[in-house]
Amino acid sequence: MCIRDRNIQQLDATMDKMQTELDDKTEAYEKVKVEAIKLSKQLEQFQSRVGQHALKEDTFNKRVMEREEEIRVLRAKLTEMTKELENTKEMLYYKSKEAEDFSNDLQIITKENQYVNAELMKVNQAQANLCLLYTSD
């Protein structure tokens, strides 16, 4: 074999080796490309989920703030109603005392009325006795 044939064979072997390396690198590049596309899609999905969760969080926070406002309003109403209840209890206590005083006064007046009626009956009886005494003479 001549040098030229040997050089051609070496060159051919080098080209085959380079072609194999190129094929291996192309295959590796395609795998990396596929993996990059896959990761890119996953990233988009995660970003979409993050956006959805952010919207849900905003909605949730808005609802929490609304509920907190409702609670604040209800607490204010409760405080107002508690004061009103205390005022009503106090008024009821005084009205109850007033009614008790009226009841006591009524009992006293009733007893006085009974006494006056009894005295009146005695006077009427005495007057009737006197009338009988003067008319029988």
Q: Would you kindly provide a written description of the structure presented here, covering whatever features stand out?
A:
The protein is mainly α. It is 97% helix and 0% strand. It is built from 1 helix and no strands. The chain has one helix spanning 3-135. The longest helix has 133 residues, at 3-135. The protein is rod-shaped and about 190 Å long. The N and C termini lie far apart (195 Å). The mean pLDDT is 93.
Strand residue content:
under 5%
Q: Would you identify the regions where 5 or more consecutive residues have pLDDT less than 50? A: none
Mean pLDDT: 93
The portion of residues assigned to helices is over 70%
Structural class: mainly alpha
Shape: rod-shaped
With helices defined by DSSP (H or I, 4 residues minimum), what is the helix count? 1
Radius of gyration: 57 Å
Biggest beta-sheet profile: none
Instruction: Give the ordered list of helices and strands.
Output: H
Question: Termini separation (Å)?
Answer: 195 Å
Number of strands: 0
Short description:
The protein has 137 residues and is an all-alpha fold. The protein has one helix at residues 3-135.
